[in-house]
Write a structure and sequence with these properties.
By secondary structure, the protein is an alpha/beta fold. Helices cover 38% and strands 17% of the residues. Strand 2, helix 2 and strand 3 form a beta-alpha-beta unit. Helix 5 crosses helix 6, helix 6 packs parallel to helix 7 and helix 7 packs parallel to helix 10. The longest helix has 29 residues.
């Protein structure tokens, strides 16, 4: 497959999709919109996709003077704003797919609704697409702790739990297996060739914080476009708000368990070898080093050392348990889909212990 050579530089048209689902994040949504409108590389358009929440949809349209269906209100900023309802089933994947279908840009970027992008976020994305082989570019996501500081027990190796870049990812501009969905961009032709985000893997409005849909998509891209390059450029920075409820150990443990469940679905879809390759490396190298670092800090009397070591062990165990249960449940319910290799309960269970992006 030979995707057409796109425009690059200032002419590159980047559509930005922000999926929203609750009025509780109203101020966050407005901040996300303003950060997109302030980009040094102007967004071609901004699409707000509302996930089956009519009151939020009406409120957004009223707030932005009825901007919808491609129409910009008089006197509005230069970045066109489109506000639309999720046209698929409830959930983040279907919301993103709705945005993809409506977007007009050569590149489609995704920003979480509780995050703000730094001014050069899109500029660094655009520069990476000068190489026509690049199909996806992600960035660095920094936690913005609502409490004002990181909990002393919270290990940086598990920052993926709160949707952020974690210790273990290589710095700079590097090739990766997959980008992280809250701070990512994809060339439109990639969606044309391989389809959109798979539903049934990521968050769907359920109380359990699932994920993994961008991992599955990126693996499909690499399989179907053999010369595809996927990158992370850590100069493309966003700041992701971490509310108080997500700074508690209970959420940490449940999110790790849910990630294990998600990784079981990904492994069933694309096979355990590809679905868990990065996780195995992270589990074998980064996590043991984190435990040792925490133990050392504890012995030196530094605050939080024992807690961080214990959290790494507990998070790894929770993810492994989720992976084992998810794999067993998938085997009981149905056979692996044609053309994929399903991972069993013992196949890389401990390796499901992080979001997994490093190649």
């Amino acid at each position: 497959m030979n995707p057409r050579r796109p425009a690059v530089g200032p002419a590159l048209r980047i559509s930005v999709v922000v999926c929203v689902h609750t009025e509780d994040r109203w101020e966050d949504i407005l901040a996300a919109v303003e950060s997109v409108r302030a980009q040094s590389h102007p967004a071609h358009e901004l699409l707000l996709v509302v996930d089956h929440h009519q009151r939020l949809l009406d409120r957004l349209r009223e707030h932005f003077n009825g901007a919808c269906a491609g129409a910009n209100a008089p006197g509005a900023p230069s970045t066109p704003l489109l506000i639309m309802a999720n046209s698929g089933p409830r959930g983040l994947s279907a919301g993103r797919n709705t945005g993809i279908a409506a977007a007009d840009g050569e590149v489609i970027a995704f920003l979480d609704d509780d995050a703000v992008a730094e001014r050069d976020w899109l500029r660094h994305f655009a520069a990476a697409y000068a190489d026509p082989a690049v199909m996806a570019v992600g960035g660095r996501t920094e936690p913005a702790w609502e409490s004002g500081r990181r909990p002393v027990w919270f290990p940086e190796e598990f920052d993926w739990v709160v949707g952020c870049t974690y210790r273990g990812l290589p710095p700079g501009k590097v090739r990766v297996r997959n980008v992280l969905g809250g701070n990512a961009s994809f060339r439109r032709v990639a969606f044309d060739l391989v389809g959109g985000f798979a539903t049934g893997i990521g968050r769907d409005g359920d109380r359990r914080p699932l994920g993994g849909e961008e991992t599955e998509l990126c693996i499909r891209i690499s399989r179907l476009i053999p010369d595809a390059v996927l990158l992370i450029d850590d100069r493309s920075v966003i700041h992701h708000r971490v509310p108080a409820g997500r700074q508690r150990f209970g959420y940490f443990r449940s999110r790790a368990y849910a990630e294990g469940l998600s990784k079981a679905l990904v492994a069933r879809s694309v096979g355990a070898r590809d679905g868990l390759a990065a996780e195995r490396r992270h589990t074998a190298r980064v996590l043991p080093a984190g435990v040792l670092r925490g133990v050392r800090d504890a012995l030196l009397g530094r605050p939080g050392g024992a807690g961080r070591a214990g959290a790494i062990v507990a998070g790894t165990a929770a993810a492994a348990a989720g992976y084992a249960w998810g794999s067993l449940r998938a085997r009981r319910r149905r056979t692996p889909p044609p053309g994929t290799r399903g991972g069993g309960p013992g196949d890389g269970a401990a390796a499901a212990a992080h979001e997994g992006a490093a190649a």
